[in-house]
Amino acid sequence: MVKWFWQRDAPRRTLTLRARGDDGGAMRVDFAELAPELNRFLGQAAYLQLGYFETLTRLIRATPELDEKAAITRAAGAALSKHRGIVDVIRDLGEDSTDLMLPFREHLDAFRRKTIGARPRETLLAVYITAGMLDDFYLALASSYGETGRRIADILREDDDTEEIVEILKRTIESDDEWRSLLSMWARRLVGDTVLVARQALRSERLAEEEDRVEPVYTELMGAHARRMDAMGLAA
User: Fold this and answer.
1) 26: closest CA among 34, 37, 18, 38?
2) How confident is the model at residue 131 (pLDDT cuts 50, 70, 90)?
3) What InterPro entries does the record point to (predicted)?
4) Which of 20, 117, 193, 229 yields a CA-CA distance of 20 to 30 A from 123?
5) How many Å apart are CA 60 and CA 77, to the nearest integer?
């Protein structure tokens, strides 16, 4: 019987992802053998932010309430700002951002389609959950790339302007037990697909033999995910 990482016995060691804005005190896992080549890392990171922006922009059109439109617009703007920041890094390296993103368009678009819910609230939750988990993961990966990685980490730590989105989701959850149950189940469905995207970002030829090295990161991702869920009043 196959066990997912969250079903296994507690890992022998733990890793603490840095809180955004915190530059000290965090233990690091050495990703040197697992981190993808720099251009692959940058291309995926840039395209993920562009995808968040696109999904949030579509949600603006699907949202009738003006205050909610404004909140989603701010979150979309934050995703676009991160995308542009990563693109600037790519250009400073003398690379073309479109060339670097193109290889990942198909599979990341497929992932995004899977996370679009039947209702706007589900999609809003999906962006919040998946962007949070993957930003954390890419922030951990960034330590493998020296000064370029530090620049990307600074970009990923920028404010994502999701506080108002959390409030929108909390109001929805508190208004109706059916919504609470639906969104809780939907969030749990998102986790597997999101972790798969994270795994695909690593060097697959070394992943099996280095599983113990990566597992603490997955554990921390799940811990951060649980805290996001708790903040909204949902069970992880």
Assistant:
1) 18
2) very high
3) Ferritin-like, Ferritin_actino
4) 20
5) 12
Residue 72 makes CB contacts below 8 A (sequence gap 6+) with 56, 59, 60, 63, 124, 165
Q: What is the mean pLDDT of residues 89-109?
A: 96
Scanning the chain, the segments in alpha helix (DSSP H) are 38-62, 66-92, 97-101, 105-114, 120-141, 146-156, 163-175, 177-200, 204-207, 211-232
Residues 6+ apart with CB under 8 A from 101: 43, 44, 46, 47, 50
Task: Please give the Cα distance from 72 to 63 (Å, whole number).
Answer: 9
pLDDT digits (tens, 9 = 90+) for 140-186: 899 889 999 999 999 999 999 999 999 999 999 999 899 999 999 99
User: What percentage of the chain carries pLDDT values higher than 70?
Assistant: 81
Are residues 149 and 39 in contact, defined by beta-carbon separation less than 8 angstroms?
no
Q: Are 46 and 100 in contact (CB under 8 A)?
A: yes
CA distance 201 to 158: 22
Long-range contacts of 155-160, Cβ-Cβ distance < 8 Å, separation of 24 or more: 155/82, 155/85, 155/86, 155/89, 156/20, 156/45, 156/82, 157/20, 157/21, 158/78, 158/81, 158/82, 158/85, 159/78, 160/75, 160/78, 160/79, 160/82, 160/131, 160/132, 160/135
Query: Band of the pLDDT at 236, cuts 50, 70, 90?
Result: low
Whole-angstrom Cα distance, residue 96 to residue 99? 5
Domains of the chain as residue ranges with CATH: 34-232 (1.20.1260.10)
The Cα 225–Cα 236 span in angstroms is: 7
